[in-house]
# Entry
Amino acid sequence: MTRPHCTMPFDSLLTPLGQVAREAGGEILRVYATDFDVRRKADRSLVTDADLRAERAIVSGLHLLTPDIPIVSEEAASESSSPEVGARFWLVDPLDGTREFVRRNGEFTVNIALIENRRSILGVIYAPALDRLYAGSAGLGAYAEIAAQRRPIACRLPSPQGLAVVTSRSHQDPSAWRALLGARAVASRLTAGSSLKFGLIAAGEADAYPRTGRTWEWDTAAGHAIVSAAGGRVADIDGGELRYGKPGFVNSAFVAYGLVD
# Structure
């Protein structure tokens, strides 16, 4: 695919950005179909050839789309090779949910987000094994592409019985969620891997995603942009909007909400 070497209004980046994510997803699926090796990085997290091949595809695509915008990507950052960033930069997780990839449950994603003045303003999440894409920006709203059909999506109001809370399988601690959810009742719980949790909130299929403990900015930035575009918000433990470009690109606890006061 040929892409223009030019700057463009950021909203117009969503469709070509989805193509970049799909190309990276194709690289991931080619590895997924093999008996791939699993290694550990210096921080003991998992990495496979799929992470590296997807990162190369994304970095190449972003350089063609926006040659002047620096890129912070998980695998390069783990090797201490991230560029200096200013007010505007890309945040990339080429394979979010490597554990899900290794378990072969399909719930892994490609995450790409554009940061401007510490806010995530545009994002794409693509789940290649499910062929499910979520995208959004403040200017265009949010949409999903499933089975080659694009439809607008929006956050919902929770039921009177309480929130439908979505979490990962490995972070099941309701007592810790309470610090983030406050006195809001929890009516049901569901689990999902990787950044698919943000997609479920943006699509009105869940109401809140509380997460305690450390995450990285590339884990959340794309989902943050999409949830915001769908009418929700992502807040830190003090209630302020989660920001980006923090030292080490590390997040503290946060909660993503749909249409919740």
Q: What stands out?
A: Residues 14-32 form the longest helix (19 residues).
